[in-house]
Amino acid sequence: MATYTEKEIAAMGFVPAQQEYFTGKAWLKNYVFPDDKTDAYIGEVLFEPGTRNNWHTHGSNQILLVREGICYYQEEGKPVQKIKAGDFVNIMPGIKHWHGASPDEVMIHTAIGINAEKGLVNWMEPVTDKEYNEG
C-alpha cells in the first residue's frame, strides 16, 4: 500500500487540485492541454486514500487508465466498480459519474479527454459518504 508525503508528491510533479471539486485531497499533473493542434486533454490525478471527485459529466469520452491503487468508479444508478492498476474505463459522453481512491491507499490514474471542443467537464454535487461507502 503506497502512501506519499506532500513533499514526495510535489517532487513527482503534482500540484494541488481545485479543492471545491473533491472530497479529500487530490493532486494534478498536466501533460497536454487542448489547443489549435491538439483537441485533447491528458493528465494524471493522484487521489489520497478516501478521496473522490464530485459527480460530473464530460462532453465527449473520458478514458481513465489506472496506474496505481484501486479506483472506485460509479455511474449514476449503477453500483460502484473497483478498477485495479493496469485496467481502464472508457466513460461515454454525458454519463454522470465520479471516481476516486479506495479508503486505504493512494490511487493514481491518467485521464484522457478527447474532443475537447465539446467541453472537458461539467462539475456537479459532491459524492456523499453513503454513496462512496457502497464501494
UniProtKB/TrEMBL annotation:
It comes from the Bacteria. Residues 44-105 form the Cupin type-2 domain. InterPro entries: Cupin_2 (IPR013096), HNL-like_cupin (IPR047263), RmlC-like_jellyroll (IPR014710), RmlC_Cupin_sf (IPR011051). Pfam families: Cupin_2. CDD domains: cupin_HNL-like. Coiled coil: none annotated. Transmembrane segments: none annotated. This is Cupin domain-containing protein.
